[in-house]
Specification:
The complex is a heterodimer. By secondary structure, chain A is an all-beta fold. Chain A has no helices and 1 strand. Chain B contains 4 helices and 19 strands. In chain B, the strands form 3 sheets. In chain B, strands 6-2-3-4-18-17-16-10-14 form a 9-stranded antiparallel β-sheet. The mean pLDDT of chain B is about 95. Classes of the chains: A mainly beta, B mainly beta. At the A-B interface, strand 1 of A face strand 19 of B.
Chain lengths: ~15, ~260
């Protein structure tokens, strides 16, 4: 199956 | 003191309609560069980045950087009171907890002030790295909206695959499956009707259609949309806002468990 990833997995806090 | 005068006020109306479904509350940031916003949806699956450059405003005064927290549904309620041809001016005093939207009819015979309460919003600002994308597809925005709408009647997710054959949008659901292939097409009467595919390498990613459909609320802003894809990166769906800026929607892919 496919799992939804999140934006914070790719872009870090600044 | 903040004073931003936008002659084409309808652009701001369209911007709000484009993002208010995705994001509930957001900080609008004003700086010398322009009027901007970055916000995620409540589940942190999608991010919207808006920029309206200062040069795009007829008058742009921003004495110091200012972050104004607003409920987007309330902003939309205010802006729906502006006529499509109205000039919209945003005003805020330093330290004030309100923002004023001023609407002027084109011939100046009607001037309205709407004052809205600001709110404190804790939002994290994310760094969006510059990336080389494997494939960039530019196509008519209405066509992209049509594809997302059509596929969502069959399935919940869309697989977007770019190969040298073109860009393929696929879905599957309980009743069956669907594939829509768009080939590069530059032999059109108007440049905004073209489909242009720049591919460095083939890429195939899976996304939730619910979010894609939400992004297409920005369709009235621009005749074209640009979709940038890279494996292992969120897709970027970009709509230009006239010649003054953009709305970029970032959507995290669905990945194999």
């Amino acid at each position: 199956g496919c799992k939804q990833s999140t934006i914070t997995k790719y872009f870090g806090k600044v | 003191m903040l004073e931003l005068r936008l002659v084409q006020g309808s652009l701001l109306k369209k911007v709000l309609e484009a993002i208010k479904e995705l994001v509930t509350d957001a900080n609008f940031d004003c700086s010398a560069t322009g009027f901007s916003l970055q916000a995620m949806d409540s589940s942190h699956v999608a991010l919207v980045a808006l920029l309206l450059r200062s040069e795009g405003f007829e008058h742009y005064r921003c004495d110091r950087n200012l972050s104004m927290g607003m409920n987007l549904n309330n902003v939309s309620k205010m802006l729906r009171c502006a006529g499509n041809d109205d000039i919209i001016t945003l005003k805020a005093d330093d330290g004030s907890d309100t923002v004023t939207f001023m609407f002027e009819s084109p011939n100046q015979d009607k001037i309205a002030d709407f004052e809205m309460k600001l709110m404190d919003i804790d939002s994290e600002h994310l760094g969006i790295p510059e990336a080389e994308y494997h494939a960039i597809v530019k196509m008519p925005s209405a066509e992209f909206a049509r594809i997302c709408k059509d596929l969502s009647s069959i399935g919940d997710t869309v697989v977007i695959s770019v190969t040298k054959e073109g860009v393929k949008f696929s879905t599957r659901g309980d009743i069956g499956n669907a594939n829509i292939v768009c080939r590069q097409n530059t032999t059109v009467d108007k440049p905004e009707e073209a489909t242009i595919i720049e591919m460095q390498e083939p890429v195939s990613l899976t996304f939730a259609l619910r979010y894609m459909n939400s992004f297409t609320k920005a369709t009235p802003l621009s005749n074209t949309v640009t979709i940038s894809l890279s494996s292992e990166l969120p897709v970027v769906v970009e709509y230009k806002v006239a010649d003054m800026g953009y709305i970029r929607f970032y959507l995290a892919p669905k990945i194999e468990d």
